[in-house]
Specification:
alpha+beta, FAD/NAD(P)-binding domain, D-Amino Acid Oxidase, Chain A, domain 2, three-stranded antiparallel β-sheet, binds flavin-adenine dinucleotide
């Protein structure tokens, strides 16, 4: 998100942009650990519009981003939920998504990989404009585009403090960000990943790192710290509602001879099962994820491995598809969702500050909104208003009034 905002600002002719990141390789960044799903099929207008604009951008660079418009097939076993999904098609299709409602009989015809226990379903939606993308290629594009326009990326720089000042000498309570303090990691330890995690979670640079302290004056500051954004908010007295929540993904190996007749993995997009499991082909394997509802918030990157696969994935896969009866766990990983109370992102200027902006906490949809958010936030910063997609519903001020929440139920 930081690279997207920087690229969009630079394209508007802003100079002197610096992106600060403690680890541009993204060992603990959600952007490097996600599932590569890209869809505009949401239930809230602002999310549909932001994702649709981003999907248009992915389509334009389809080859570079390995963007495949293979659709999302979403299965329902709850009649009320399905009725809402069918009702939300009005909005989605008004915005050009062409979402179809499928009967139970049509599901198997549509996706022969689904051949078990379909009678317990009540229907499905299929959204043909959605698909799969290589998120690392997208991130690399933003970064390269920004660099070509003069943006400086400071790697291994930890933002350790923020200095604020009153915005005007004439009084008033509005503040501005004056400068940020940086700790540059100039020499590391053997277990660098572990030390980075300790640094990010405890907010103290481990003594095993040699650091050089410096600071940067800021005319404008944008908080794009993802799941780590609350730590920064706490430093400047902004009450944050974001919670980091662990999400696990596994790669699964299926023997080609075990696939049910008619199954062609290369034509399959994302399948979201009624159980909450999601699945799509990923190179030689399948990628599947599931978010146990009770997972407690925290900065937890541990992956439960084979146990996760056996406990959460395999039973759900084999329940819906004979192709997964004899599949095997290959490997997997865990990353963080930055979750808000209404499961929508936080974007905009921060009240009480004249030069503080933010774009973070996208729950499970940062990649698929990344282009629109970067472009629109740049417009807000430079011109004072959004240009194409009105992101103002995503302001953090909405949390003061539950009627203004952008409740997004269609998340996985
Ligand atoms: C398992 C999983 C599956 C997902 N699936 C999808 C999907 O299919 N589609 C989709 O669109 N989204 C998905 N997401 C969500 C998506 O990955 C995120 O919304 C998105 O990557 C967030 O990007 P970001 O730039 O806001 O945060 P990040 O990518 O986390 O970037 C934040 C950066 O801030 C840096 N940082 C933090 N604190 C400091 C500090 N004090 N000083 C300096 N640097 C700091 C970190 O190093 C990091 O690089 C998934 C996420 C997970 C975990």
């Amino acid at each position: 998100m930081g690279a997207s905002v920087a690229s969009a600002l630079a394209r508007r002719g802003v100079d002197g942009i610096v992106v600060v990141d403690v680890d541009l390789a993204g060992v603990y960044a959600s952007s490097e650990l996600n599932a590569g799903g890209a869809r505009a099929t949401w239930w809230q207008r602002v999310n549909v519009e932001a994702c649709r604009l981003t999907l248009d951008f992915f389509r334009e660079h389809a080859e570079a981003f390995s963007f495949r418009e293979l659709g999302y097939l979403w299965l329902y076993d709850d009649a009320d939920l399905y009725a809402r999904a069918v009702e939300r098609r009005t909005l989605q299709n008004e915005l050009g998504l062409g979402v179809e409602a499928l009967s139970v009989a049509e599901i198997a015809e549509h996706s022969p990989i689904l051949d078990r226990n379909l009678t317990e379903l009540v229907g499905a939606t299929f959204s043909p404009r959605d698909g799969l993308v290589n998120p690392n290629a997208v991130r690399a594009w933003y970064r390269r585009d920004a660099e070509e326009r003069g943006v400086v990326f400071l790697n291994r720089h930890y933002l350790s403090g923020v200095e604020t000042a009153l915005a005007s000498a004439a009084g008033g309570s509005a503040r501005r960000i004056r400068s940020v303090a940086l700790s540059e990691i100039i020499a590391g330890v053997a277990d660098e990943a572990g030390a980075l995690l300790r640094l990010l979670t405890t907010h103290r640079v481990p003594s095993e790192f040699a650091v050089a302290e410096s600071s940067l004056e800021c005319e404008t500051f944008v908080n794009c710290l993802g799941a780590w954004s609350p730590l920064l908010s706490a430093k400047i007295g902004v009450r944050d509602v974001t919670e980091p929540v662990r999400r696990q993904i596994s790669l699964i190996d299926v023997n080609a001879t075990d696939l049910a007749p008619g199954v062609e993995p290369e034509t399959l997009g994302m399948v979201v099962d009624a159980s909450g499991l999601y699945l799509h082909p990923d190179g030689a394997f399948f990628l599947a994820g599931y978010s146990p509802p009770g997972d407690a918030p925290g900065y937890d990157f541990s992956y439960d491995g084979q146990a996760f696969f056996e406990r959460e994935l395999w039973p759900r896969l084999a329940h819906r598809s004979s192709s997964f009866e004899r599949c095997g766990h290959v490997r997997g990983w865990a990353g963080l969702y930055a979750v808000t109370p209404d499961c929508s992102g936080i974007v905009g200027g921060v009240a009480g500050f004249t030069n503080l902006y933010e774009a973070h906490s996208f729950t499970g949809r940062g990649v698929m909104q990344s282009y629109a958010v970067g472009r629109e936030l740049a417009s807000l910063i430079v011109d004072g208003c959004y240009e194409t997609v009105d992101l103002s519903p995503l302001t953090r001020e909405r949390f003061a009034d539950p009627n203004r929440w952008i409740r997004e139920d269609l998340h996985i």
